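WARN no homologs supplied; continuing
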Amino acid sequence: MVVAAPAFLALLVAPFVLARAFRFATSWRDLRAPSLALDVATVVGLFAGSAVGESLGQYLAFLPWFTWIGLLAVRMLRVRKDEAQISQPAREGPVP
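OK structure emitted
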């Protein structure tokens, strides 16, 4: 129980903290609104689902939260791909 409370709090606070950081990063600015929306959906799902049943609240909270994680993962892969293309020198002639 001692570890669960800080981990749960970090789960809820992380999207808000990163949404604030996204405001200052030009290439990530477009993820600010989805981060805030998905975190609000996480909190609403948690409390609304918990009113019906405890485990339903957990499922409704994790669905938007993992959607947010997937959104970040797609962006990170895209940034990595773009950086790899920039760092490779241009080749002349046909590419095998």
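The chain is about 80% helix and 0% strand.
OK
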